[in-house]
Amino acid sequence: MRRFRHSCVVFALGLHAATALAAGVSGAQERAAREFLAAMASGSPIAVAQSLHPDDLHRLRVAIAERLRADAALGDHNARQRLFGEASNLGEIERLTDVNFFAALGVRLRYPGRPFAKVHGLEAVRDGDKLVHVVMRGEQPEGRGKTRVVTLVTLMPYGKDWMAAVPSEIEAQIEDLIDGRDPAVGLAPRRVAAPAGSPAAGAPPAVNTAEMRTLLANAATALIDGRCDDYYGDYMSPDFRRTTSTNALHALVKSCERSDSQRETLIAALHIVQDSAPVFDRGGGRAIYDTTGRGLPFDRFVLERIDNRWYIAE
Fold this sequence. Notes:
The protein has helices at 2-21, 27-42, 45-51, 54-73, 78-84, 90-94, 98-106, 168-179, 210-224, 228-235, 238-243, 246-258, 260-274, and strands at residues 22-23, 118-127, 131-139, 149-158, 161-164, 279-281, 286-290, 300-306, 309-312. The chain is of the alpha+beta class. The chain folds into 2 domains: 27-173, Nuclear Transport Factor 2, Chain: A (Roll); 210-312, no CATH class. Helix 2 (27-42) runs antiparallel to helix 3 and helix 9 runs antiparallel to helix 13.
């Protein structure tokens, strides 16, 4: 009996301690969690970055930058390329703001979440001195189903308010990228097969023609040799040159000649496009390449054919 009473006392004390750690969700905590869940549901890396606590976002950036610098000192560029793309440059990465840093690598991440019409805080559980885990219940917008979804958001104090901490799931995905691991099950992008009989079903991917590959190779050679005049004069589209003022063209050439980094970026773009599948439009006279997430400062690269010759359009 004494042993039973002792067990009851221990259980009661444990229950009291757990209750002391949990509390109701304040209005400020609920608002911060709602903003973070909306950012995750948007799938926008910028929106997610802006919803995160600046100190925690900065911590993440510093840790990754230190890893990239250490790898670069050893001649290892794998982690940088996995996070920012093969055309990325460590110097340019280090100059990014915390938000832009996350946005640049964030295109490789998945943001599990769904939009909610309403969210309500159920419980807030403290984790140490800074973190609070808030349990939220969300109601989906009309037409999205009636199931109320329970989710967890980790918050940090931000003055009198709160902001979301970097989710552990996001940090785990970043570790997977750095170490070259496949995404966890359920986080890998899934390709939906085209319906049988549709034009896309079984259609072979578009490829660069021999003429397009020759253009790209010659343009890259001109830049490698420092012949920026030739790049803008011979390989850029006549339409581009016609709509760009003489002063602006002169400035582009001079900037190309002075900046090794700019030439390296253009050369990397040409090499990436050479090995990429374009989407053709305008009757096959225009080729558009998606360069999102390849470490380039632009999301697409375009070629166009004029008088049976291919040029760089933009």
